[in-house]
Amino acid sequence: xxxxRAAYRRCEEITWSQARNFSYGIRLLPPPxxxxxxxxxxxxxxxxxxxxxxxxxxxxxxxxxxxxxxxAELAAGRPDESDPVQVALADAARRYPVPLPAFGELIDxxxxxxxxxxxxxxxDLLHYCRCVAGSIGRLSLGVFGTPDPSAAEPLADSLxxxxxxxxxxxxxxxxxxxxxxxxxxxDFDRFGARLDATANGGESRxxxxxxxxxxxxxxWYVTGLRLMPLxxxxxxxxxxxxxxxxxxxxxHIAATPTAVLxxxxxxxxxxxxxxxxxxxxxxxxxxxxxxxxxxxxxxxxGGSGGLPPxxxxxx
Length: 315
Prior knowledge:
By secondary structure, the chain is mostly helical.
């Protein structure tokens, strides 16, 4: 049997070493919520690593089926006591209303990856994004807590979609080389773009496609960041740091769309830390009646630039 404290320590070790962006936000939470969200991350990372690993497709699908069976046991209150991640997650689910079945949606998305699913329309892609990232938003919300779950859950889902669209743009070439294309075929057709053609104007068409998708992602941030006033300050700081890092990344991509066609765009650690610091500092200040605050509460956002200041990306 694994001691609960040791189980949480193991989940935090996984999170600090592997959550290169999320860890900046998770560290801003008070210890009990920080531990619980680290357990959520560690279990999600395990599922994601199966889909992104080097096993043959059939073995990946078998491993994902095993993860689904393990999730069912966990949800039934029967975690594997020898598995620190399951022990920690089971304890977190006892202390917070973590919607464990949402991990099943993440497994669905990973299975789609393994099968090489492609997406004809944005609605098709949206379903995938909600599986792999919206689910994490809802799981995180279970740890954060909110006085209005019915309003907060779709916003957490939307913020997850925004982050996933940013991920897709960041990894567009890397995914293509792995045989995965996430952007909708209808959008490639709209711009006459192809990932295997950069000569004769091909790079310009791809850049236009990236700019279009970046603008679409901004809209999901505007919606998702309306979650902020529905969270306590430390949870809002955590969310703002994570979303702010990804929004800054999106800004870099939108400013130089050809960059993602040449390399994996990333923020330096110093810039990530600055976003996290700004998110914590902003969350500690009393709310003000600014235009951005009204946008965060669902008022007129003034277009895709009306992002709440906790995003850390408007400056």
